Amino acid sequence: MSEAPELPPAVRDRVAALAADVLPRLETVPARLRRIADFAPARRARVGGGQIVAVLADDAATRARVGELVADRLDAGETGGTGAPGGTAEDPLDAAARAWLARPEGWERTVADAATRLDARAGEQAAVRETRLVAQAEDRASRAEDQLAQVRGERRRQLDELREEVTTLRRRLGEARAREREARRELEGAVAELEDARREARHVAGEGDAERRRLRTRVSELEAANAALRRTGREDRDEAGLRVRVLLDSVAEAAAGLRRELLLPSAEGAPGDRLEQRIAERAVDASAVTGRDGPAALEQYLAVPRARLLVDGYNVSKTAWPEVSLEDQRTRLTRALGPLVARTGAETTVVFDAAASVARPPTAPPTPRGVRVLFSPPGVIADDVVAELVEAEPTGRMVVVVSSDQEVARHAARHGARAVGSPALLALLA
After folding, report:
1. Which of helix, strand or coil describes residue 1?
2. N or C: more exposed end of the chain, with fewer CB within 10 A?
């Protein structure tokens, strides 16, 4: 017998799912699979899928019997508890799984054909996604170009207005300088006249006190006129200088604003900055998924205004009080949350799993102010209810999910929520 080819991952998963559905129907369950035989079909495939495939690969009799049961179920059109879709032999995955189990003549070719068809389908889907992404990128680029052209036109208009204002200010500055030159000439003339008056006063000093008083008065008048001219010239110079400074500030601010609007950043940073940022973001995401945040981080999250606290009820209560009944666990948890909610003001909802219960619990635990209690609907686990509550919250709000379930934590992190483990909340409630 030739060595069995290695199964493609998709075919291996389908074999595990189909075999997990029919495992309880075996007359004799192999010893290696008895531990998972009592699991629900979905969990049986998820937890023991690899082990199921390994046992079937080694045990030809068991593989043949499982192949018969799987063939009966596929021919009957059954779906199975794992959620794997039922189908006909034309389905490449089902056909490959059936061939691998039954091992008819040419079954290796059937498995290889299924792998080829799956690869082709994946390539087609990738091409469609790439085409859609390219179209979206081109549309965004077109809109960005239109917005940029509009902004550029507006900035050019503003720049033209500023240039006209600069021209006006330059003309006014030239006029001020002309007035300053005229004032200087008048000042020089007054100084010359003052010197002439002084010489004349010295010349006629001997003609009498009256003439001296007249000349002194004339000198005072000329000095006052000289001071007024100097003051006027200085004020004109100060006004002209102020206008020039205001003009330069306006031009500088307009240039900076234009640069911001045209998205012309300075050459800052280094080529590795973006990679470092992605690595840091992955580290943050990993921290959120693994629930490393402790009591201090949870306290800080709940201190944010209008924080939303979602608690996976039994995940926390079974960690804290596994020895008591579920009813006592619910009562203890809701009572313990009261002081924390009163102190932080967080909007708090505790979700208890009632998926397997047809009737609701007879009495709901007494809840403190600000604490709401939800039971999941029949057939729906609490994890799915918590996921729906997380998705319903708007982006940007502080949403904190308390659960040690890694699937719940990963879902919360993907939707922008903070995920912390049950021990962190229990430390705050202690």
Report:
1. coil
2. N
